[in-house]
Task: inverse folding
């Protein structure tokens, strides 16, 4: 894989691969031309993408000629970054490749495409296949049912033992992420943490890339990296917040009213804790429904942007939890104010909600409201409303 974020790759980076003689590897594959138009060409293309997805991710680089061996076959060493001469509409080409991948591989593969302009013949197309723990992935085009992985310089068809191991790896990472979430919820509710988090009912949002907890892939981020990217999380509130390192990584909190805390972990996992407000008479707790939905979607959007800035790859799990909600209110400001005037058959949590269903995010550029809308509806339904005000037509 080219050791830069995809959006930052330039012609100079591609020329450096040639000058340095950087050979193909488990995560890097050169292609002199685009896939051909036949079904066989398309299957070969999908097999290349599938192999990278099942092998930790990597880059397919189209428009780089290779040195040849004695038999005239590509030797896996770049000769020139000449570009693609037959590309007249790079946007249409990228769309066609995206549609091919999405319809020809199951489960869906996370990937990003970039056309790098500057080479003499035309653009070079870099297709970055994200590391995947939702696999193993299988080519399904034209009735095919083949699993592929990549070795040192090429792909191969996986055998039954390798397929079984890939399934176990996928389920193991999701289990690790949920265990991390459960451990954090226990810590937040414990007496040990009472000086860090707000008292009373709390909303907790976790965003955890699979890469953060996968064996052999876990990053250990420097405090300076966390500090420098923290501005992506709550930029509009920056002037009223405090920041600082702690045991887990980097913490953001309000110095005046401890109603919200963001914890950035060295693995790249992120956590938001927001406390309920008290009613005017100070006797009851409550969340305002519209504010809750907007805070969650805004925070999740900032979290995904932060993962990307930290150089982490999709997928990730977004996980929303509500703690200590028995007796807490969910206020619809258009119908009820203050909390004490609520009809306790509607707008009232009669039990602790706990952890809600996970949301798998396969692309950090996705719009967050459609992803979290069904979960926010569940929150409102737990309090007797049919829908969240965030998902209602306005």
Result:
């Amino acid at each position: 894989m080219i050791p830069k974020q995809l959006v930052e790759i330039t012609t100079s980076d591609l020329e450096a691969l040639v000058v340095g003689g950087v050979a193909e590897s488990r995560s890097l594959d050169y292609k002199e031309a685009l896939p051909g138009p036949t079904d066989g060409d398309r299957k070969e293309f999908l097999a290349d993408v599938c192999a990278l997805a099942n092998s930790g991710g990597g880059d397919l680089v189209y428009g780089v000629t290779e040195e040849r061996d004695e038999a005239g076959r590509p030797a896996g060493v770049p000769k020139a970054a000449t570009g693609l001469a037959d590309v007249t509409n790079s946007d249409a080409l990228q769309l066609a490749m995206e549609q091919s991948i999405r319809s020809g591989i199951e489960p869906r593969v996370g990937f990003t495409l970039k056309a790098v302009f500057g080479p003499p013949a035309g653009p070079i197309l870099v297709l970055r296949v994200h590391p995947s723990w939702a696999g193993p992935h299988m080519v399904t085009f034209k009735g095919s049912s083949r699993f592929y992985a990549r070795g040192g310089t090429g792909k191969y068809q996986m055998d039954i033992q390798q397929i079984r191991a890939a399934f176990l790896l996928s389920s193991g990472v999701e289990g690790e992420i949920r265990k991390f979430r459960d451990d954090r919820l226990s810590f937040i509710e414990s007496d040990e943490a009472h000086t860090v988090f707000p008292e009373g009912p709390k909303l907790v949002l976790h965003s955890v890339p699979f890469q953060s907890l996968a064996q052999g892939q876990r990053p250990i981020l420097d405090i300076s990296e966390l500090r420098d990217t923290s501005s992506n999380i709550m930029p509009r509130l920056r002037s009223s917040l405090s920041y600082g390192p702690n045991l887990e990584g980097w913490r953001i909190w309000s110095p005046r009213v401890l109603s919200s805390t963001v914890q950035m972990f060295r693995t790249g996992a992120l956590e938001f804790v927001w406390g309920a407000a008290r009613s005017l008479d100070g006797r009851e707790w409550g969340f305002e429904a519209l504010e809750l939905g907007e805070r969650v979607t805004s925070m999740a959007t900032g979290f995904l942007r932060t993962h990307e800035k930290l150089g982490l790859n999709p997928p990730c799990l977004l996980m929303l939890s509500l703690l200590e909600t028995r007796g807490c209110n969910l206020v619809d400001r258009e119908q009820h104010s203050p909390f004490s005037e609520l009809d306790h058959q509607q707008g009232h949590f009669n039990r602790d909600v706990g952890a809600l269903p996970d949301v798998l995010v396969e692309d950090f550029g996705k719009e967050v409201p459609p992803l979290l809308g069904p979960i926010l509806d569940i929150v409102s339904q737990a309090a007797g409303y049919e829908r969240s005000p965030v998902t209602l037509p306005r």
Remarks:
- The chain is about 30% helix and 25% strand.
- Confidence is low (pLDDT under 50) at residues 336-344.
- The longest strand covers residues 202-209.
- The chain has two domains: 6-158, 171-382.
